[in-house]
Amino acid sequence: MIAVGFLIVYLAVGKGFEPLLLIPIGFGTILVNIVGAKMGELPDGMLAIIYHAGVGNEFFPMLIFMGIGAMTDFGPLIANPKTAILGGAAQFGVFFTLFGVAVMNLFGLNYNIMQACAIGIIGGADGPTSIYVSGKLAPELMGVIAVAAYSYMALVPMIQPPIMKLLTSKKERLIKMPNPRAVPKMEKVLFPLMLLILTILLLPPAAPLIGMLAFGNFVKESGAAQRLSKTMENELMNIVSIVLSLGVGSQMTPEKIIKGESVGIIVLGLIAFAVATAGGLLMAKLMNVFLPKGKKINPLIGSAGVSAVPMAARVANKVGQSEDPSNFLLMNAMGPNVSGVIGTAMAAGVFIATYGGLR
Questions:
Q1: Of 86, 72, 97, 124, nearest to 303 (Cα)?
Q2: Which residues, 6+ apart, have CB-to-CB distance to 198 below 8 Å?
Q3: What is the pLDDT of residue 97?
Q4: Phi, psi dihedrals of residue 225, rounded to the nearest 5°
């Protein structure tokens, strides 16, 4: 396991796979497995204290969502609300994984439905939500789920383009879209409040994540407390990312990782992510059947429906520009990209509402 920790550090530094998160996860893995150091044991082990203080009780992931809210601009989504459908379609990968888990069980692995839900969230390419759901439903799998989720987030530029080109024609990739309209400040201020109200009414179990996302975004967009907003998206976000990742690394111990189920998680996570990408692309193609000429959507932006913000939107823009350098899709792709963050949080709420009482 110490070797695995060094491998994670190498992937972060040498290959650039989410270094801000995988470096502390790798070091957490190394430190918790040093014989005699007892860093993962209560009452005095540093890593054990970190885990029980904010990882095992989902406190740190919610602080991360507050920072994400403060960093996110929902303007492109507000300007073009139909792109929310693309973010929703990408969640198909999350739910499809439940069937994949059933298939894995036929081959001798042993996942229960709560573990299946935690694994499925990997398909949304959302590390904090993956940690949050695994903490609620399958804490014994948290370490490998977190590493898989953050690894696939880092691999977005490698995984998505082949799928995008396979499922779209050159003509579709050349579709140009006008930049979204400029969104007035009032709409941006009201959006997080309306999002929170709808969550309270329709899906209360998702309120912890959506509530913190809305809180961070409201503080940013209101402009009334810029010091708080800057702290959320900078100092607080950095500090919480460090301790959260160290806490996740503390769960990378032999009895939790060295088993067939861990390999299955890596495979299922990749399948979920690929299906999520395909779901967004195919939904955009379906929408184009009903949209009038001149209002067509470039299907490439559908791939940005996963939660990897803003990397997935940048990849959609890059693939579009590889066909036509004058075709700028970034702002249009940000619509489904930020809606994917909301969609994955909603999917997490559905899982927790349905199966959270079984533990």
A1: 86
A2: none
A3: 80
A4: -145, 70
Amino acid 72 reads T
**Contact by Cβ (8 Å): 228, 215:** no
Q: Which residues contact 227 (CB under 8 A, 6 or more apart)?
A: none
Give residue 311's identity as a one-letter amino acid code: M
Instruction: Report the C-alpha gap between 313 and 248 in whole angstroms.
Output: 27
Query: For the chain, which ranges sit under pLDDT 70?
Result: 359
For residue 144 the two structure tokens come to 């490998």
Asked if residues 222 and 49 have their Cβ atoms less than 8 Å apart, the reply is no
Euclidean distance between CA atoms 181 and 167, whole angstroms: 29
Q: Which two tokens stand for residue 137?
A: 């439903």
Would you mind telling me the total number of residues written for the chain in this entry? 359
pLDDT number for residue 105 = 83
- Global pTM value: 0.90
Whether 305 and 288 have beta carbons less than 8 Å apart is answered as: no
Query: CA–CA separation, 192 vs 214, rounded Å?
Result: 5
Q: How many other CB atoms are there within 10 angstroms of residue 86's CB atom?
A: 29
In three-state secondary structure terms, 168 is coil
Rounded Cα distance between 318 and 46, Å, is: 43
pLDDT of residue 359: 64
pLDDT at position 62: 92
304 contacts 337 by C-beta, under 8 angstroms: yes
Residue with tokens 């950095």: 238
Beta-carbon-side half-sphere exposure of residue 133 (alpha carbons within 13 Å): 33
pLDDT of residue 269: 83
For 148-191, the pLDDT digits (tens) are: 888 777 788 888 999 999 999 999 999 999 989 999 999 999 99
Contact 134, 146 (CB under 8 A): yes
Whole-number pLDDT of residue 258? 80
Judge whether 277 and 93 are in contact, CB under 8 Å. yes
